[in-house]
# Entry
Amino acid sequence: AASSYVVQRGEGRTVLAGYPWFTDWGRDTFIALRGLCLATGRLGEARRVLVEWAGSVSHGMLPNRFTDSHEPPEFNSVDASLWFIIAAGDLRLAEKRLGIVASTVEEWRLNAAIVGILRGYAAGTRHGISMDGDYLLAAGEPGVQLTWMDAKVGDHVVTPRIGKPVEIQALWINALRIGEEFDSRFGKWAGGAEASFHRRFWNEDTRYLYDVVDCDHVPGRVDGHVRPNALFAVGGLPFPVLRGERARTVVDLAEAKLLTPAGLRSLSPDDPQYRGSYRGGVWARDTAYHQGTVWPFLMGAFVEAWVRTRGGSDAARGEARTLFLEPFLKALDPHNLGHLPEIAEGDAPHEPRGCPFQAWSVGEALRLDKVVLQS
# Structure
């Protein structure tokens, strides 16, 4: 199934987010690529995809979507550009392990894109994206949805998350760590951001991480909703930001409140705003999209976090495969077709919904199977 999502765009390659409805989106492409191509050893295709996208950096941002009608691309994502850097970093490590020497021209394009994104984000770019004085990344403005929780009905943004969202900080710190070989300042900024993260995101009341700090760009205002975004500080990215007892507590709470056989709920069912059914008209569906609906792609971050907080041993990987990956595949791909859906219902029995063939759902399952849980 992995090969069916990687398609031609111009002279290069790209990833379709899902069939039959979705084209190639930046965020989906770079998340899915790590499993579809890197985990399966298709490094040449991965490089072609990344080099093709590298030429689209504008004011430090990559597009999140190219339109079908040849209009200007949409730059409405704070995380797509950071996921690009994560994927490029993973590609480099995979090529290094195999002794692959890349084209000088292609390397220059990738390096220029990485540096351009990090410098552009630090200096400030569209939609209020900029590095703040605490080295964390601020983002957002009214009416624009910038994170993966991007549901919008008319002018109503369901989960705006303006301020400093938790997974954006984990991505920012990871991207800076990858980029520090090109500019030593990036390493300094990463250290400052990590220190601020530990100081500002821990919620002692819930023993979890705040979902957003400095909400609406108001210093000190916090969002304590229990969502799966906190998991990216522990798993799903190359460098964990949260370790030790706090990391284990975050994973344990996510397992208790968010985990289902089909993936992770987007909001705890204890929350008054929780919506466990994804049915009805556009308003009913989209207002539930990130308010309880289950997302299979999040299983990648959760399982990797679970394994890391148990020492990363062969025994932990084997247990995670039995506890999580095998039931997950059985629940969402009972006929072994090699495809996984976009979402599932928050309430049991967690019926599949949305796009039936979703690239990042498949990509993260492959990454778990061939990388995270390999002994």
Summary: The two ends are 24 Å apart (CA to CA).
